[in-house]
Each structure stands twice: as structure tokens, then as C-alpha cells.
Design brief:
alpha/beta, Carbamate kinase, Aldehyde Dehydrogenase, Chain A, domain 2, 6-stranded parallel beta sheet, 22 helices, about 35% helix, globular, Delta-1-pyrroline-5-carboxylate synthase, multifunctional enzyme, ATP binding
Length: about 750
């Protein structure tokens, strides 16, 4: 027996047909029957007199949306006392103003005092209005609502329990949303020291235990408890070290310090946790979240049901490994230790990783074979993604060569002085390179990305979180194991972490206190989704790779077909593959043009005609739907332009600022193209496929950036560094440099220390 409020009830729940609670947030989308508990702080206004109508309307909209999806929704609500208080205050003021106007004149109105309102009377006056408001709001979504008032005694009379259970089941069967509240008009007298100014609140804390009890009795799948805090913290919210607990497990309450209660209500977080654990014991999953925050309250309920990382999720299943938050902290600490190593020590780690890739070649290829077989059996991956997923001996050899290039070029990357200034006598300023911090790299299909990015992070002294696609799980696992083995030679194993939890990408993008930069490697849709989801974290990358090749009138016949074939056909799934071929109008119906078309047909490239190109042809290929298309396959668009100027304008209008090429023997035309095309990479008489960190001599790349700040084009070690300023003085103060001070600014540029060129 446990005691909730002042009345004991049996803690063993009734048997549940659907078994245990959900183990992971991602499973919450399968919740069929849901109870939403609205705390007093959520329902009432900030002045604690009346309801927060906008917030309530948003909650009703979300509940209605879920109800119309076929779920069974129930609401346990507070608010009757606050609504009643508003009505009674209005009546008292109106009554007093009339009496005083008749007997004392208008001058006395400002001195009127409002008496302390009795809570039961407030509840009685507010219940009907609260319910009428709910009915009006739900009617907007063609949903019927029904009110049920209960007390704790209703759960201890077996007949009343059965009646309540039957009523609720019947309402749910008829697609009606039950709205349940404690009957505060008839409950026992309240305890003193209420939180509501001017009114005693009766048993508001019972709504926490009521919601939990109701959830268990009705065998619900999910209980959502909305309050005025983000969830459960490991120490009182607002304190310096307070951290939101993402997942709370039974037995963890000893490590939590509870603070004060919310501004209204008597439950407090401790009561909510106890109620949540009791519901969890009964087989109901629980999430405690903020229902008052203006930025999230409009979608907090639907976000929870979709499995997003909102509030605190209560789970009975503790994961075997660390949480992603713990991994982020480990990566930051490991990255700082990594940055403090000597350059040759970081290089030694990368050399060791390169050796491990060749020494364990057979194990890596065996793991990759498992991934390929599973992907082919499931049939979910398109052919370009299957090609990216595949590893080979030659790929591993190229990886090892690239890693050794990174190691050789990393000797003076971190801590390099890029500017020295003498501010004044004995006051010298330096600008030096430092790591960005913690990188989150999200990649699809390509397991070879893992050692490449890891080596670049090691060389630049950054901590690293890696989130690979599940289609490459076996390959990623062994490659990460080898990476950590290499890191272990200098005790920095934790600097590179592979996220294996069920964290959604959108949830990872919200960890702005743990992650400093997000780098997506994958489809344009993945990049766009991450750019949209990132909350306060910069994203480096490109959403599309719409690369152009412009064939000028002065192009060499020998060069044209070679460059076009390589740009389009060597690896059509790559982001640096040709997608649009621009042909000068004067080349139409020439032998060179015929050679281009014949070569594309031999290579089985499907041609789409641009609008101008189609207008020149009697029987043209299928006209392109959009000139902003990244095909990622053996397809391309051909369009006609009248000049190099028009080619540049076309690229600026339809391109993605990735990589664009001109083929010409006219140096003046080529220089015009190189100077005027505003893309990350602009080439003359060279394949688009050269846009690559390895081919640029960077060893590897974390991606190709088309943004205009920090890093652009293939991003190697330099793009993963930022700077800090070091000022060395000797008792210098700013007042010495005032008009009548003793010192003068010099601002002299000083020579830089000689770089290590080995």
C-alpha cells in the first residue's frame, strides 16, 4: 500500500493486455491510447486569474489531430479554480461598484478590496465554464468532449471503479474525448500555504496521481504530463549545473535533487516523478515536458508522440552504452586532450589508423559484405547508394594513402601562428589556430567516410560524434573500433564516438550545448533536412551538387568528349558529377556536337533537353522538368547558350555553387569564366570530378561546402580550425593609453615563426 495525497490505494495495477511500457522514444508513435495531463501552470494565465486561452487552444488542436489519426485521447485537466476565481472576482467587483456608486460616490471605487475567495466556490463556479470552453474548442475539429468529475474515493469503491471504467471505455468507443478533473467543489478542506494568490487551492496535486491512476486503470500506452518546466533535471532548474535528464530510469531518483514547486498547483516535480514511476510500473510509458514555452507548446504533444527528444522520458530499459549526451561530453573532453598532444603524436595516431586499415582488410571487407547482403535482401537502397556502400581492396588502399597524406600535412595545423602584432612596448598579440570543438558528422551509406573524417578530426584536434546509416552498421562498427584502437596509443580513445543509440537525426541537431558544427554527408534531401532541423548549430555542406560543363566555341575536339565522359560517367552518383551540359549555339549541328551525343549514347546516358535546346530540334529528347535537377545517375540535361556571359548567368540562376567547368582553348574566355562564376570550385579544361579533398592534396575531406563563410569547396584540416587571440603583457592597463597616459599604441606587424614544411 502507498499513500497518494491523504488516501491510500493499492499500487498493484490491473493486468494489461498490451504488456510492458515502451522501451524507447521511437516506439511512442505506436501509442494508441494516450492520457494528457495539463498542470495548473499550463492551463492558467501568468496572473493566475483566468485561463491561458491561446495555449489551451493549441493543446486542443494537437489532441484533436491525434484523435483524428485514430488514437484514443483523454485529458486530465486543472483550471476550474482559476476560471472560477476570474468569474467570481468579476461578480464581486461588479456588485461592489454598484453598491459603492449608490452610497459613496465614484471616488471610493479605487479603494475596493477583494475578499479571499473560497476554493470550493471557485471550483464550482469554474467547472461549467471550463467545460464549455473545451467543448467549443473541440467542436472546431468536429470532435465531441465529455466531462467526468472524480474524487479519490471513486477509486476505492469497487462498484464506482467499474462504473468509471465502463463510462470511459464507452466514450472512447464513440470517439469522444473524456475530460477528467478532480471534483474540487466537494473534496476535503485544503492544506494551508497555497500557491495561488488570494485563493486556497484544493488538492491540485491529486491531478498528478489521478492521471497516473487513470492511465493504469485504462491500460493506456502513454501518459504525457505537461508542466511549466522542460522536464526532470538532475538538480533544481535554474541552478548553474542543472542538466535536463533525457531518460529517467527507476532507481535514479536518489541522484536527483528536487526544487520548489511550480508557480501554481501543489504537486511539484517530486509528486510528478512518483506518479510517473507508479504509472511506469503499471505498464504505461510517461513523458514529462513543458507545456508553457511559447516556442514549443504549439507542437509539444505531437512531437512527443512522434518520438522526438522532448522533455524527460521514463523507461524501464537502461541502454548498455552511454547516452548521446554522455558521448558528446566524452568527445569534448577527449578532443581537448587530443588538441593538447604534440603534432607528431596526432600524426602517429593517423599513421597507425592507416596501417590498421590494411592489416585488417579482410575483416573490414567481410563486415561490408554483410551490409551489402542485408541491403540487397531488403531492397531498400537504390543502385547509387549500393555503390557508395560497397568497399573494396582498392578503396581501402586509397583510404590508407589519403590518411598518410593527412598525417604528413597535419604537423603545424593546430597552434599555428597566423598573425603577430606588437600592440605596445612589451605587449604582443598573436592569432593562433585552434580546433572548432565537437563535430557531428552524419553520413549515409559511405563507410569509407568514417576513417576519413576521423583522421581529419584527429589532425585538427576536434572531438567527433559520428552518426552513420544503419545500412552500413557492420562496416561502421569495425572501422570505429579500429579508429579507437589507433587513438588508444596516446590515451585519447574517447575523442571519436560512434552514435549507436536510436537517436533521430533531428534530435541530434538540437544538442547545441554539446555540438559546435554539423557536417552532413549524403543526399541533398538529408542535407536539407539537417539544415532545417539544426537549432543554433552551424551546418557546413551543400544541399545539391548541380555541376555544369560549358563547351565554348573554341573548345578542343580531343578534350571535350574526355572531360564530359569523366565528369558524367566515371561516378554519376557523386556530388561532383556533371548534371547540366551547356553548349554554345554555334556548335549545334557540327561534328563536335555529334561526337558528344554519340559518346553519351554509348555510355547509356539519358539526355533531357533544356527549353532552348528543345526549340532547335524537330524530334528532341524529353524536355527537362527543371533546370535545377541533380540526377545522381546516368542522366543529364543539355541546354544551349549564346555566349560565355550567358553560360555564367545560367550557372548563377540554376546552379548550386558547387563545381563548374569551361572547356575552351581561348585563354581570355577561360579567365572571364574563372573570375565571374561564383562557385566553390571553378575549373578550366578539367573534369568536375577533381573537386575532391584527396585529389586536391588535402588527404581527404569532411565534405564540400558551398557556404560563403569559414570554409568553401573541399573541406580538409584547415576548414576544421578556427582561431583564438593570445595577448602577452606586463602590467598593462587601458588607462595608460588615454590622452594623458604614459603609453602609445604601436600596432606593428611582427614576422611569423617559420612553418614546418616537412
Amino acid at each position: 500500500i502507498r499513500c497518494w495525497s491523504n488516501i491510500p490505494f493499492i499500487t498493484m495495477p490491473l493486468s494489461r493486455a498490451h504488456g510492458k511500457s515502451f522501451a524507447h522514444r521511437s516506439e511512442l508513435k505506436h501509442a494508441k491510447r494516450i492520457v494528457v495531463k495539463l498542470g495548473s501552470a499550463v492551463v492558467t494565465r501568468g496572473d493566475e486569474c483566468g485561463l491561458a486561452l491561446g495555449r489551451l487552444a493549441s493543446i486542443v488542436e494537437q489532441v484533436s489531430m491525434l484523435q483524428n489519426q485514430g488514437r484514443e485521447m483523454m485529458i486530465v485537466t486543472s483550471g476550474a479554480v482559476a476560471f472560477g476565481k476570474q468569474r467570481l472576482r468579476h461578480e464581486i467587483l461588479l456588485s461592489q461598484s454598484v453598491r459603492q456608486a449608490l452610497h459613496s460616490g465614484q471616488s471610493q471605487l479605487k479603494d475596493m478590496a477583494i475578499p479571499v475567495l473560497e476554493a470550493r466556490a471557485c471550483a464550482a463556479a469554474g467547472q461549467s465554464g471550463l467545460m464549455a470552453l473545451y467543448e467549443a474548442m473541440f467542436t472546431q475539429y468536429s470532435i465531441c468532449a465529455a466531462q467526468i468529475l472524480v474524487t479519490n474515493l471513486d477509486f476505492h469503491d469497487e462498484q464506482k471503479r467499474r462504473n468509471l471504467n465502463g463510462t470511459l471505455h464507452e466514450l472512447l468507443r464513440m470517439n469522444i474525448v473524456p475530460i477528467i478533473n478532480t471534483n474540487d467543489a466537494v473534496v476535503p478542506p485544503p492544506e494551508p500555504n497555497s500557491d495561488l494568490q488570494g485563493v486556497n487551492v484544493i488538492s491540485v496535486k491529486d491531478n498528478d496521481s489521478l492521471a497516473a491512476r487513470l492511465a493504469v486503470e485504462m491500460k493506456t500506452d502513454l501518459l504525457i504530463v505537461l508542466s511549466d518546466v522542460e522536464g526532470l533535471f538532475d538538480s533544481p532548474p535554474g541552478s548553474d549545473d542543472a542538466k535536463l535528464i533525457d531518460i529517467f530510469y527507476p532507481g535514479d531518483q536518489q541522484s536527483v535533487t528536487f526544487g520548489t514547486k511550480s508557480r501554481v498547483g501543489m504537486g511539484g516535480m517530486e509528486a510528478k516523478v512518483k506518479a510517473a514511476l507508479w504509472a511506469l510500473q503499471g505498464g504505461t510509458s510517461v513523458v514529462i515536458a513543458n507545456g508553457t514555452h511559447p516556442k514549443i507548446s504549439g507542437h509539444v504533444i505531437t512531437d512527443i508522440v512522434e518520438g522526438k527528444k522532448v522533455g524527460t522520458f521514463f523507461s524501464e530499459v537502461k541502454p548498455a552504452g552511454p547516452t548521446v549526451e554522455q558521448q558528446g561530453e566524452m568527445a569534448r573532453a577527449g578532443g581537448r586532450t587530443l588538441a593538447a598532444l604534440q603534432p607528431d603524436q596526432r600524426a602517429e595516431i593517423i599513421y597507425r589508423l592507416a596501417d590498421l586499415l590494411t592489416d585488417h582488410r579482410e575483416e573490414i571487407l567481410l563486415a561490408n559484405k554483410k551490409d551489402l547482403e542485408e541491403a540487397e535482401n531488403k531492397g531498400r537502397l537504390a543502385l547509387p547508394l549500393l555503390k557508395r556502400l560497397s568497399l573494396s581492396t582498392s578503396k581501402l588502399n586509397s583510404l590508407a594513402i589519403g590518411l598518410r597524406q593527412i598525417a604528413a600535412s597535419s604537423q603545424d595545423s593546430v597552434g599555428r601562428v597566423i598573425r603577430r602584432t606588437r600592440i605596445a612596448k612589451d605587449l604582443d598579440l598573436e592569432q593562433v589556430t585552434v580546433p572548432i570543438g565537437v563535430l557531428l558528422v552524419i553520413f549515409e551509406s559511405r563507410p569509407d567516410c568514417l576513417p576519413q573524417v576521423s583522421a581529419l578530426a584527429i589532425a585538427s584536434g576536434n572531438g567527433l560524434l559520428l552518426k552513420g546509416g544503419k545500412e552500413a552498421a557492420h562496416s561502421n562498427q569495425i572501422l570505429h573500433h579500429l579508429t579507437q584502437e589507433a587513438l588508444s596509443i596516446h590515451g585519447v580513445k574517447d575523442a571519436v564516438q560512434l552514435v549507436n543509440t536510436r537517436e533521430e537525426v533531428e534530435d541530434l541537431c538540437r544538442l547545441d550545448k554539446l555540438i559546435d558544427l554539423i557536417i552532413p554527408r549524403g543526399s541533398s534531401q538529408l542535407v536539407r533536412d539537417i539544415q532545417k532541423a539544426a537549432k543554433g548549430i552551424p551546418v557546413m555542406g551543400h544541399s545539391e551538387g548541380i555541376c555544369h560543363v560549358y563547351v565554348d566555341t573554341d573548345a578542343s575536339v580531343e578534350k571535350v568528349t574526355r572531360i564530359i565522359r569523366d565528369s558524367k560517367c566515371e561516378y554519376p552518383a557523386a556530388c561532383n558529377a556533371l548534371e547540366t551540359l551547356l553548349i554554345h549555339r554555334d556548335l549545334l549541328r557540327t561534328p563536335l556536337f555529334d561526337q558528344i551525343i554519340d559518346m553519351l549514347r554509348v555510355e547509356q546516358v539519358k539526355i533531357h533537353a533544356g527549353p532552348k535546346f528543345a526549340s532547335y530540334l524537330t524530334f528532341s529528347p524529353s524536355e527537362v522538368k527543371s533546370l535545377r535537377t541533380e540526377y545522381g545517375d546516368l542522366e543529364c540535361c543539355i541546354e544551349v547558350v549564346d555566349s560565355v556571359q550567358e553560360a555564367v548567368e545560367h550557372i548563377h540562376k540554376y546552379g548550386s555553387s558547387h563545381t563548374d567547368v569551361i572547356i575552351t582553348e581561348n585563354e581570355k574566355t577561360a579567365e572571364f569564366f574563372l573570375q565571374h562564376v561564383d562557385s566553390a570550385c571553378v575549373f578550366w579544361n578539367a573534369s568536375t570530378r577533381f573537386s575532391d579533398g584527396y585529389r586536391f592534396g588535402l588527404g581527404a575531406e569532411v565534405g564540400i561546402s558551398t557556404s560563403r563563410i569559414h570554409a568553401r569547396g573541399p573541406v580538409g584540416i584547415e576548414g576544421l580550425l578556427t582561431t583564438k587571440w593570445l595577448l602577452r603583457g606586463d602590467n598593462h592597463v587601458v588607462s595608460d593609453f588615454s590622452e594623458h597616459g604614459s603609453m602609445k599604441y604601436l600596432h606593428e606587424s611582427l614576422p611569423l615563426p617559420q612553418r614546418n614544411t616537412n
